[in-house]
Write a structure and sequence with these properties.
single chain; about 170 residues; alpha/beta; 4-stranded mixed beta sheet
């Protein structure tokens, strides 16, 4: 696959609208994200189908159910494909093509403890980046913790410092 040369092309996209997450069971995933986000979906159990829509996604046919959650700065679409059914992705932090969705929090340890008490399972303990482990040095002190949704989508909570902080 050829890619445009960034020295000659600059499209300039600046704002994300939403992230779409393919799920195997929409109802289970809606319950998980409701508990995680503390919010109801703005759209729930809606559908999409049709040949034109399928072609836009590079598929022969498409029939799906979806739900949408709105954060302050991003939408999360949960999408259950009914036709064609897909195989589960083999996601992991180090697999090319895998992505993660990160949630900004003020205190990772407090959120981690609250989530753990509620039954969320983390991949490991919260971690604080130390001097010599992260660039730029201003990011030292950033705290992270990682977990997965019911289908294995990589999720993160972060209390960023310095170079990882966004205004």
């Amino acid at each position: 696959m050829a890619f445009p040369n960034p020295s000659t092309v600059s499209i300039g996209l600046k704002k994300a609208a939403h992230v779409g997450i393919a799920v195997s069971d929409l109802d289970r995933s809606v319950a998980f994200y409701q508990a995680l986000l503390g919010a109801e979906p703005v759209v729930r159990d809606e559908g999409m189908h049709g040949a034109g829509f399928a072609q836009s996604q590079g598929l022969p046919t498409t029939k799906l159910r979806y739900a949408t959650f709105n954060l302050d700065n991003l939408g999360i679409d949960l999408i259950q494909f009914q036709e064609p059914l897909g195989d589960a992705a083999q996601v992991a932090a180090n697999r090319p093509g895998s992505m993660h969705l990160c949630f900004h929090v003020d205190d990772v340890r407090a959120v981690y403890d609250r989530m753990s008490e509620a039954g969320f399972e983390f991949l490991g303990q919260p971690y604080t980046f130390a001097s010599g482990e992260v660039e730029p040095p201003a990011a030292v002190g950033t705290v992270v913790a990682y977990f997965n949704d019911p289908d294995g989508t990589n999720l993160e909570i972060i209390a960023p410092k310095g170079g990882f902080a966004r205004s």
